[in-house]
Amino acid sequence: xxxxxxxxxxxxxxxxxxxxxxxxxxxxxxxxxxxxxxxxxxxxxxxxxxxxxxxxxxxxxxxxxxxxxxxxxxxxxxxxxxxxxxxxxxxxxxxxxxxxxxxxxxxxxxxxxxxxxxxxxxxxxxxxxxxxxxxxxxxxxxxxxxxxxxxxxxxxxxxxxxxxxxxxxxxxxxxxxxxxxxxxxxxxx
Length: 189
Hints:
Elements: H1 2-7, H2 19-30, H3 39-52, H4 57-62, H5 65-76, H6 83-120, E1 125-126, E2 137-138, H7 139-152, H8 161-178, H9 185-188
Antiparallel strand pairs: 1-2
């Protein structure tokens, strides 16, 4: 997947990332692959379909879609290393990573927008114990943390602790917004 990411055009649309294009891009590494799709390709497309339906990072984590992808790799067994399977899994990983970053940035932006709305309403600290922060966490500090997460999460994605904190922080901000009288922002976050 790393080779594909580095060699594929930067403005590549999801629709352009079909099996034939991935196979052609990976040809220097895998050699020429057959025309048919691997048995895993259909299962991976189903997982991608479900991932694309997610609206928030919490949807992705709670639906265990990432785990389903890992399970598909394990189920492939030795066939994972066949060129047609490598093409299918490279495509899947590339597109799944895009879904993940779209959702992650959406959550971060929702948190930042929510923090801004809270500050406009005079709320300068919120209860973030569910996200492993303090009961009166300063909104300014939360903003700085979110900005640093935008950089940090460019590393490998997983369903680990930092992602759970991000999901829980969004929930804490949304809950705080519900306590702000007349906050139109509460409904849109």
